[in-house]
Each structure stands twice: as structure tokens, then as C-alpha cells.
Amino acid sequence: MKRAGDLAILVVDDDEDLREIIAFEFTRAGCKVLLAATAAEALAHAKSVKIDAIVSDFLMPTADGTGNENGLALINQIQALGASSPTRDPVVILLTGFGDLLPPDAYSTGTTAVFAKPVDRKALLAYVLEKLGAGSAD
Fold first, then answer.
1. Mind listing the pLDDT tens digit of every residue in the chain (138 residues)?
2. Counted domains in the chain
3. Taking the alpha carbons of 2, 108, 79, 19 in that order, is the dihedral positive or negative?
């Protein structure tokens, strides 16, 4: 069984408060947490660190504020890195303010779950640890 302390979790959301709340829960469990406000920041993390799980907003503004970024596109970009990245087959959870309404191809990208906002952070933590076969950090 893996220990939570051995896991790296990437939290991607344009809402800083939500990122911090989710990060707090995972950090308290002993996980290493990486934060990103944009898909570009998330991609940079995925290129340099082995990420075990990605918790990403489904829809967020672009870094320049001129449009929207799609969480599915981010996951596809990370998967396309292939052998050039230490991140391989992470557990993927999408967060959405639109209930569980996602495009049909959402699960074909490797998404394992969708959590509606406001997120039950304890349920999110429990889900990720279970999917990764992890116990507590102790």
C-alpha cells in the first residue's frame, strides 16, 4: 500500500481560494501538493514532477483572460508528453460548476471522476487516496 506522503497531487483551478482549500486537505493528509492557476502552469509541473493525481477545474479562463481553457485539453496535453514526462497515467478528477454535465469524451481522456462545486474536500481526498491505493502518511 502506498503512503499519502509518497504522493504528488496537482490542483489546477483559477479560483485561488478553492486551490488553497483543496491543497490544505491533501497537505494535512501528508501529500505533496502542487498548485496551478492555468493549464500552462499545470503543464510545466507535469513536465518536471511525477504527478500521481490531477484535480482540475473543467473550465477556467486563459492566462491572458481572453478566453477559456478546458480541463480535458489539459489532460490530453499531459498525456501527449509521453516518455518525455515523469507523469504517467495520473488519476484525473475534474471539478465543475455545471453539475456532472461534461462532454461524452470526458471519460475517454482518463478522467476517473467528476466532482461538482462546491467540492466536498473530504470526499475528494478519500476518493483520490482510494484510487491510488494509499493509506495515511503515518
1. 678 889 999 999 999 999 999 999 999 999 999 999 988 899 999 999 999 999 999 887 666 666 677 777 888 888 888 877 888 889 999 998 876 666 666 666 778 888 999 999 999 999 999 999 987 655
2. 1
3. negative
Q: Considering the domain boundaries, does residue 138 fall inside one? A: no
Whichever domain contains 52, its CATH number is 3.40.50.2300
Helix segments in 57-110, DSSP class H: 71-80
Sign of CA dihedral 124, 78, 100, 60: positive
Of 8, 59, 9, 17, give the one whose Cα is nearest residue 38.
Answer: 59
Angstrom distance (rounded) from CA 37 to CA 117: 17
**Residue 108: DSSP 8-state:** G
Q: Which range marks the domain in which residue 14 is found?
A: 2-133
How is residue 32 annotated by DSSP? Answer: E
pTM of the model: 0.88
